[in-house]
Amino acid sequence: MRKLISLEIKKFKLFSYLKGVGIANLVIMGLLCLIYFAEKSEGTIAYGSYEMAFAAFGSIIRPTFIIFAAVLISRLIIDEYKSNSITLMFMYPINRKKIIVSKLIIVASFTFLTIFLSNLLIGSVFYLVDSYLHFVPKELTAEVLKDGLLSMTLEAIASAGMALIPLYFGMRKKSVPTTIVSAIILVSLTSSSTGGVNLFAFIAIPISLAVIGCLIAYFSFRNIEKVDVN
Amino acid sequence: MSYIIKTNQLTKTYKGKEVVSNVNMKVKKGEIYGFLGPNGAGKTTIMKMLTNLVKPTSGEIEIFGEKLTNTSYEVLKRMGSIIEYPVFYDRLTARENLELHCEYMGYYDKKAIDAALDLVKLKNIEDKSVKDFSLGMKQRLGIARSIITKPELLILDEPINGLDPVGIKELRELFHMLCREYGITMLISSHILGEMEQIADTIGVISDGKLIKEVSMDEIHEQNKEYIELAVDDVKKAFYVLDEILHLTNFKVVDASRFRIYDTGASQSEISKTLILNGVMIEEINKKNHSLEDYFLTLINGGGISA
């Protein structure tokens, strides 16, 4: 399985996506600065506490990388079907389920890692900047940090599962636009906040969406050995 | 006789329509089997079933003496194939594509890639991604990929599509070489008769999803020998003259004044000269040669569709 994953990475030159991840992080940081200055000009404080700040980071990072994952699904799975190269893959003496699972593992772990590491990176940069400029009124306590880390990890895991949901819509007509649009709809439904409350705040919702994502992946390819590949 | 491929009442139905019906084909070890049939006859569908991409509606397939099932992955290791048209990872170079192929096949002979590229005569392709290849080059690369692991069975769907005449000749020689020297069994499909005639040992004619004839090339040549047909005034005298002077013995009488000579020992002009010099009057002399094309067109038309 590790071999298959490394071959997939080689085949699609997936390390070139790291550049995209880096750019996304820079854009997110820019956006966070913008929010800070916009709020300041209105006389309010954007990041009243570290708790609020962490929540804000998460709500920008998550959607970004769930959509990024949809791009990856398009490349790894939808495109293989569209360009017929999946017939090539399925003529290799390799269990078809393993081929698909290795692709899904790449998507899920990519989502988890990018969300987790981006949160860490942006959080640390934020903390560093704040330690010089002191724009957050409340200090960062160990308690807040622990809670923040925990919820961030949970969210990253949930997002990794959720990221597989667009697969269902994309596979129906083997369409890349459908995959990406469904990811955008998915994140705008789950990450939009109304009155400061967003769906992600109740941990049950992201967890159940993650479970749905995994089920979708399972049911999409359960019969992979029995169906015709055209 | 051991068969590499054997199908038993193989049938495939798409949306209630039978595209392949009750095909019983047998491919012997070490032969080149030519799959001949008009477009849409079901050649590709059968090949897809043989490579496990498409599952039969009913019937069975045996490859290397083992029944093909949904999870027959091991047999795929012993096969090389191009189905429909060669598919590559377009953004990679030819070499990268071949390297990936070897990795997936579990074949680790570094020299094999160069050897395969040499065999199909693909040169000056380094640093060029496959999307910039012409159809002919892709076809060659596809063949290189299918033979790189030295499989026991090659399944090639329309391998000569998109090649120029020189390329076709080179490939024909390559196929013969692979078959004779490496003992690779080949299943090649085409709708081009002349090509099949020169490549195949056995021909399976398929039309409208049915295998209407499976016949060896030798047999076809036997049935379609060329002959000289003569109409003379005295058949007995003619026989005598030909036997005594030209030592021809293989005759067949058609009617009172007509007969055919199947011997190839004498030319048409030699025969007519000898007969006339010996007082046999020739009313008509014709060299006849049944073309393979006629043979197959009758077969296919007899199968119920118009070509």
Explain this structure:
The complex is a heterodimer of chains A (230) and B (307). Chain A has 230 residues and is mainly α. Chain A has one domain. Chain A has 9 helices and 2 strands; from the N terminus they run ααααααααββα. A two-stranded antiparallel sheet of chain A has the order 1-2. In chain A, strand 1 and strand 2 form a beta hairpin. The longest helix of chain A is centred in the middle third of the chain and has 38 residues, at 96-133. Chain A starts with a helix and ends in a 9-residue tail after the last helix. The mean pLDDT of chain A is 89. Chain B is α/β, with parallel strands linked by helices and 307 residues long. Chain B folds into 2 domains: 3-217, 3-Layer(aba) Sandwich (Rossmann fold), CATH 3.40.50.300; 225-288, Alpha-Beta Plaits, CATH 3.30.70. Helix content of chain B is 35%, strand content 27%. In chain B, the strands form 3 sheets. In chain B, strands 7-8-9-4-10-11 form a 6-stranded mixed beta sheet, with helices on both faces. In chain B, strands 1, 2, 3, 5 and 6 form a 5-stranded antiparallel beta sheet that branches. A 4-stranded antiparallel beta sheet of chain B has the order 13-14-12-15. In chain B, helix 3 (110-119) crosses helix 4 (135-147). The A-B interface holds A 3, 7, 10-11, 13, 83-85, 87-95, 225-230 and B 48, 51-55, 70-71, 73-77, 79, 81, 83-84, 87-92, 100, 103-106. Chain A: It comes from Neobacillus novalis. Chain A: This is ABC transporter permease. Chain A: The chain crosses the membrane at residues 21-38, 53-78, 99-129, 149-169, 176-193, 199-221.
